């Protein structure tokens, strides 16, 4: 299970996010079941709360994932990702990554200074601090979700279009890319939902079979809820399904219950 839940959490956070202004707010909560067929491997969640950071009103967003049941016996995963996001500018000020993946651990805090475009990375595990430059409009893996929800106009997007954004993760700048595959209706536990289908470009190799191994279904409404993620991994096929939500800013559009 190493890297599977973190990778899914990253892709759920980054790739499931497309709407108009004020698409989210404090109190919003998503919970996902990660499973191989009928076997539950783990759960992941995203939650938004109000907070204050250095005198600024921000959203404090937490993404949390862990293995459960038999999967936890074989390989324990418990990952905690947090971001503090400016409510008006939709940019991150602080990013926290605290993970335990079968004994492989990280405890990192990143502070973003957007005026100087410098990211200060505090590696608490090794007691090391380093500074990196980043380009304009850079996001972390949590804030990217909410930035795109507020700024990407899906009414103008066409099948085959590629969306790009700057991201800083693990002491590295990179371009995150999503390919729009089109629209389709999806059968879910909540009913039949109109969806937007995206294919995030991921790194092939140890976790994913190919660059386009992952597909994401997003509700085609003002909320743009991530409903389903399907991944072809090096160790088999895995899905993450939305099983619970609350605190939405807009009505959830269901075709047939």
Could you please describe the fold and organization of this structure?
By secondary structure, the protein is mainly beta. It has a single domain, classed as Beta Barrel (YmcC-like fold). The chain contains three helices and 14 strands. The chain has a 14-stranded antiparallel sheet. Strand 2 and strand 3 form a beta hairpin. The longest helix has 12 residues.
Mean pLDDT figure? 86
Oligomerization category of the chains in this entry: single chain
Coarse shape: globular
Question: What profile does the largest beta sheet have?
Answer: 14 strands, antiparallel
Beta content: over 45%
CA radius of gyration: 18 Å
Stretches with pLDDT under 50, minimum 5 residues: 14-20, 204-211
* Helix fraction bin: 10-25%
End-to-end distance? 34 Å
In total, the number of domains comes to 1
CATH hierarchy class name: Mainly Beta
Number of strands: 14
Q: Could you say which structural class the secondary elements and strand pairing correspond to? A: mainly beta
Order of strands across the biggest sheet?
A: 8-7-6-5-4-3-2-1-14-13-12-11-10-9
**Helix run count:** 3
Order of helices and strands: HEEEHEEEEEHEEEEEE
Question: What is the CATH topology classification name?
Answer: YmcC-like fold
Level-2 CATH architecture: Beta Barrel
């Amino acid at each position: 299970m190493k890297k599977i839940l973190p990778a899914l959490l990253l892709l759920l956070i980054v790739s499931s996010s497309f709407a108009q202004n004020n698409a989210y707010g404090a109190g919003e909560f998503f919970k996902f079941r990660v499973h191989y067929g009928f076997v539950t491997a783990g759960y992941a969640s995203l939650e938004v709360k109000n907070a204050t950071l250095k005198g600024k009103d921000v959203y404090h967003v937490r993404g949390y994932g862990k293995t459960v049941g038999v999967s936890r016996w074989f390989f324990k995963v418990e990952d905690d990702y947090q971001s503090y996001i400016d409510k008006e500018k939709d940019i991150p000020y602080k990013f926290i990554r605290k993970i335990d993946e079968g004994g492989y651990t990280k405890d990192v805090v990143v502070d973003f200074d957007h005026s100087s475009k410098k990211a200060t990375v505090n590696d608490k595990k090794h007691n090391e601090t380093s500074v990196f430059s980043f380009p304009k409009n850079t996001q972390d893996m949590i804030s990217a979700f909410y930035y795109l929800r507020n700024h990407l106009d899906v009414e103008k997007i066409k099948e085959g279009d590629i969306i790009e954004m700057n991201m800083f993760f693990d002491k590295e700048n990179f371009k995150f890319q999503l390919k729009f595959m089109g629209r389709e209706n999806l059968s879910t536990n909540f009913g039949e939902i109109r969806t937007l289908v995206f294919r995030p470009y991921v790194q092939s190799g140890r976790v994913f079979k190919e660059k386009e191994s992952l597909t994401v279904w997003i509700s085609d409404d003002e909320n743009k809820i991530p409903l389903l993620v399907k991944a072809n991994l090096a160790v088999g096929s895995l899905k993450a399904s939305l099983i619970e939500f609350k605190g939405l800013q807009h009505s959830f559009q269901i075709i047939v219950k």
